[in-house]
């Protein structure tokens, strides 16, 4: 029975890997179930045992890449605990670089950035909701801005083939978050 579970998991992974190879080459609308099955060495019927269509494969891959913030250490500040530390964000990003660089790139899935933000934002909001004198509507906009910037700069870092060292980028992001953007522009 355990052997069967391993075979099933491997078959599913093979199909996902075949899809990913194709997705890196062309847009999802151009990928067929037949192509995925052939590339993985299976028939179409085997594909349908695991997935409903090509979009279902993409969803499974994306969902596996969304960090579970409940499992990550929180970021502590003098006034409380908020979200995920920047170094953990970097580690998650680097572990998934093969996927993130494509999904968040020009040919990727525009909805993936939204999924990332939607996985992080509620956790941070929950920490802040009990604080006095906080306008959660305003915090929502601040988090949207910050998370969009974080995802954007990390994507850009991969597009530019990490021309800045990880440490320099880490310091830059930290300075931008602490001091704001305009204080670093030569105006």
From TrEMBL:
It holds the Pfam family TetR_C_8. The chain crosses the membrane at residues 141-159. Residues 9-69 form the HTH tetR-type domain. The keyword Endoplasmic reticulum does not apply. It comes from the Bacteria. Keywords: DNA-binding, Membrane, Transmembrane, Transmembrane helix. GO terms for molecular function: DNA binding. This is TetR family transcriptional regulator. It comes from Serpentinicella alkaliphila. The lineage of its organism: Bacteria, Bacillati, Bacillota, Clostridia, Peptostreptococcales.
């Amino acid at each position: 029975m355990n052997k069967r579970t391993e075979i099933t998991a491997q078959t599913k992974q093979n199909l996902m890997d075949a899809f990913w190879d194709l997705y890196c080459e062309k847009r999802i609308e151009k990928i067929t179930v037949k192509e995925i099955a052939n590339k993985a060495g299976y028939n179409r019927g085997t594909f349908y045992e695991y997935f409903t269509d090509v979009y279902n494969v993409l969803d499974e891959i994306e969902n596996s890449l969304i960090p579970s913030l409940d499992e990550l250490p929180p970021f502590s500040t003098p006034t409380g605990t908020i979200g995920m530390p920047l170094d953990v964000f970097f580690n998650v990003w680097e572990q998934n670089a093969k996927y993130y660089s494509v999904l968040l790139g020009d040919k990727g899935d525009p909805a993936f950035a939204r999924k990332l933000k939607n996985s992080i934002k509620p956790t941070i909001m929950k920490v802040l909701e009990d604080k006095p004198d906080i306008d959660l509507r305003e915090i929502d906009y601040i988090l949207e801005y910050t998370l969009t910037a974080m995802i954007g700069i990390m994507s850009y870092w991969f597009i530019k083939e990490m021309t800045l060292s990880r440490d320099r980028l880490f310091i830059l992001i930290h300075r931008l978050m602490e001091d704001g953007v305009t204080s670093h522009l030569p105006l």
